[in-house]
Specification:
- The protein is about 75% helix and about 5% strand.
- By secondary structure, it is mainly alpha-helical.
- Strands 1-2 form a two-stranded antiparallel ribbon.
């Protein structure tokens, strides 16, 4: 047993070290940038060290657990722990946040506040993935809102206040349902609040009550994931946010909703999940088709990528609803894979905008000749997004397909029908990805409009960010056991409980 509070250090370090930014000398932004990058890299190294030396891969139980009585009067504990499902998202958070701080280097206005908010988000995003207490999970979930709101409303585009307000209304509205669910589970059937995940996982509820709890949590996570019809804040937010913020939103924030569905809805409320899972499959299938079709009609480049994110999240929902080992492993792989690919696409969309100052696809064209490095990396990540074999997206989506086909819960005709609809969604993905590349990079439009213009191609910093994301995308695509080695035992444990519970009823 390791007694050092590794997880507390990992959660608290970014925001506490970030608060020292306010005392740094303001001689240009160089000191602040390097200091923030140093904190991010140090945090990533601490996390990697703690997980490498103190985490056993073959143990499905919670590890590195900590349990401190925080507010005695309120039965509120600081409970942290990680297992095979949360370790991947925590490492993804560290990786994407470090690259997002690099992506934010061109921002010069109020850079102290910008970098502090990014570090506050770092803590706020690792918090929910490592919380083992329902109320702590809720507090960490809420900690995210203020930094995102400020990053949107201060460094966004022309409609930034509209999109920031929409973001806060949707997510705070969803959080009300989360709080009600947390208090309902905590106060049910006992005089003292029981907010511990493990205790709650062994608790049984009347089926009707469990379904009510489940729907409350589902609404909260559906806003964050986002699941249709609660997704409309996402394209507006992405359309206006600075691309470093978009990287954090697409790479990590969306994954918190999917993680909540597995951690709370599946683990704590298995009977309700078994009843609702067919509906999740239907919603996920509709979402893949609807978002892919809508993406095709978007003129705004970032909104097109945002709708593609919504479409790819549909695979995660279907994997969670499939109630099979393979499907749930596929979902967890898609969470990691889309975290990389989504962040990379928004980063490249932002770097293109820095060059040409155009947002709408029908105004672009012919950029491949002017900026060949950005063209190459953009093409590679578009291929990764449309699930090209050898890339992580292909493996994740293929395994979700297998998950449906091997599921014991559904009839053969249902499985064939859902697979067929998903396949149509996978055909629509290349259409919007390739038409986006065609409109941006091919043709001569840009040169006819501005014949004497000269653009700088990707610099070393931008190439470093793109390459850093490309390596894990190809690595996972060729050898997905990087991720499965973490999650496979825990997934088996969750689903074995599931089927034992189902058959004992």
């Amino acid at each position: 047993m390791n007694n050092f509070p590794w997880l507390t250090l990992i959660v608290v370090f970014p925001i506490s070290a970030g608060s020292l930014i306010l005392f740094l000398p303001h001689r240009g932004n160089k000191v602040i940038r390097w200091y923030t990058l140093f904190i991010c890299i140090t945090e990533l190294l601490i996390t990697t060290y703690a997980f490498s030396y103190h985490f056993q891969l073959d143990d499905p139980l919670m590890q590195l657990t900590e349990n401190y009585n925080w507010i005695h009067f309120f039965y509120f504990y600081w409970r942290l722990g990680i297992d095979g499902i949360s370790i991947g998202p925590v490492l993804l958070t560290g990786f994407i946040t470090t690259l997002a701080t690099l992506a934010a280097w061109p921002v010069t206005r109020d850079s102290r506040l910008l970098h502090f908010l990014m570090l506050a988000m770092y803590s706020g995003q690792i918090g929910p993935f490592s919380s083992q207490d329902l109320l702590l999970f809720f507090i960490m979930w809420e900690l995210e809102l203020i930094p995102v709101y400020l990053l949107l409303s201060m460094w966004g585009g022309r409609k930034r206040l509209y999109s920031a307000t929409k973001f806060i209304l949707y997510t705070a509205g969803g959080s009300v349902f989360l709080l009600i669910g947390v208090l309902g589970i905590g106060l049910y059937g006992s005089n003292e609040p029981t907010l511990n995940f493990e205790t709650s996982a062994n608790q049984s509820y009347p089926v009707a009550l469990e379904i009510i709890f489940y729907i409350g949590f589902l609404i909260a996570f559906a806003v964050k994931s986002p699941i249709i019809p609660l997704h409309t804040w996402l394209p507006d937010t992405h359309g206006e946010a600075h691309y470093s913020t978009c990287m954090l939103l697409a790479g990590i924030l969306l994954k918190m909703g999917a993680y909540g569905l597995v951690r709370i809805n599946m683990e704590l409320l298995p009977h309700a999940h078994s009843i609702v899972s067919p509906w999740l499959m239907i919603i996920g299938t509709i979402q893949i088709i609807y978002a892919a079709s809508t993406s095709l009609g978007q003129r705004n480049l970032k909104k097109r990528i945002a709708y593609s994110s919504v479409s790819h999240m549909g695979f995660i929902i279907i994997g969670i609803g499939s109630l099979s080992d393979t499907g749930l492993n596929g979902s967890i792989l898609q969470i990691i894979s889309h975290g990389f690919i989504g962040a990379a696409l928004f980063f490249l969309a932002g770097t293109s905008y820095d060059r040409i100052r155009l947002v709408y696809l029908d105004e672009m064209g012919g950029m491949a000749i002017a900026i060949p490095k950005i063209f190459t990396t953009f093409s590679i990540f578009s291929m990764a997004s449309l699930a090209l074999p050898g890339m992580s997206g292909f493996v994740a989506e293929l395994i979700v397909f297998f998950g449906i086909l091997t599921s014991q819960k559904y009839l053969l005709m249902t499985k064939i029908f859902i697979t067929f609809i998903m396949a149509i969604g996978m055909i629509l993905t290349p259409i919007y990805s390739l038409s986006m590349l065609r409109q941006m990079f091919y043709g001569y439009k840009l040169f006819n409009n501005a014949p004497n213009s000269f653009f700088f191609d990707s610099g070393p910093r931008e190439l470093f960010v793109s390459t850093s994301i490309l390596l894990p995308v190809i690595g996972i695509g060729i050898y997905p056991d990087f991720v499965f080695a973490l999650s496979v035992d825990k997934v088996e444990a969750i689903l074995s409980n599931f089927f034992l519970d189902m058959f004992s009823q």
